[in-house]
Structure formats: structure tokens, C-alpha cells
């Protein structure tokens, strides 16, 4: 996750848009490639880092750490450290994080509809159309 230079036009535009449009503000918080997936798994309850990693096998440990830190900073995820040896750390959604449940469920429904729509528009060749007529 690279940072945008604060002196760039892109940064200024992003700040202006997020200040004016609450939908964009919300999308910036949960709109990362992994943020929604992490929140989806945490909707079922607390998980440890290793458990999250198993549910998201394609994410690197570094990216999972960065995403969890960002979600924690944005008050979406709560991190609890238990004084044990070795220390046990659990992640769970905060109360405002749990409010994402209906949003995530609706995004899933919309995703299914859109994926079906897009797939219907893709030309499909029947076996007969692929055969060269002689």
C-alpha cells in the first residue's frame, strides 16, 4: 500500500471528494482489495491472524498485517492481545464494523447479478461454430 504524495493533485482531489461525498469516504475505508474479504470473514466472529490467513490464502502476511492495521485505525476492527505465552492476538469487528453486514450482503447479491449479466453478454461459441466447414 503506497502512500499518495500530499503535494500531488491526486491527493488534493481525493481529499476534496471524500470531504464532499460520504459514499466515496465510506468506499475509501472498505474499498481495498482485501478489506471487504477480511470483514466478511470477521462477520462470523473473532479470528486469530493465522485463521484469517488460512481463509485468505492468496494474501501475503505483510498485506494482511497492513490491512488489519488500517481497519483498526479506521475503527472497523478491534485487536485484542491476551497476556499469555506465547501471546494470543484476536481480531474482531467493532460495533460499526458489524454494521457492514447488510452492506456486504447486498454487495454480494449485486455482484452475483452483475457477474451473470456480464457473462451473458460474453459471446459463447458452440461446438458447431468452432468447427471449420470444408
TrEMBL record:
<keyword id="KW-0804">Transcription</keyword>
<dbReference type="InterPro" id="IPR036388">
    <property type="entry name" value="WH-like_DNA-bd_sf"/>
</dbReference>
<dbReference type="InterPro" id="IPR002577">
    <property type="entry name" value="HTH_HxlR"/>
</dbReference>
<dbReference type="Pfam" id="PF01638">
    <property type="entry name" value="HxlR"/>
</dbReference>
<keyword id="KW-0238">DNA-binding</keyword>
<keyword id="KW-0805">Transcription regulation</keyword>
<protein>
    <submittedName>
        <fullName>DNA-binding HxlR family transcriptional regulator</fullName>
    </submittedName>
</protein>
<dbReference type="GO" id="GO:0003677">
    <property type="term" value="F:DNA binding"/>
</dbReference>
<feature type="domain" description="HTH hxlR-type">
    <location>
        <begin position="21"/>
        <end position="119"/>
    </location>
</feature>
<dbReference type="InterPro" id="IPR036390">
    <property type="entry name" value="WH_DNA-bd_sf"/>
</dbReference>
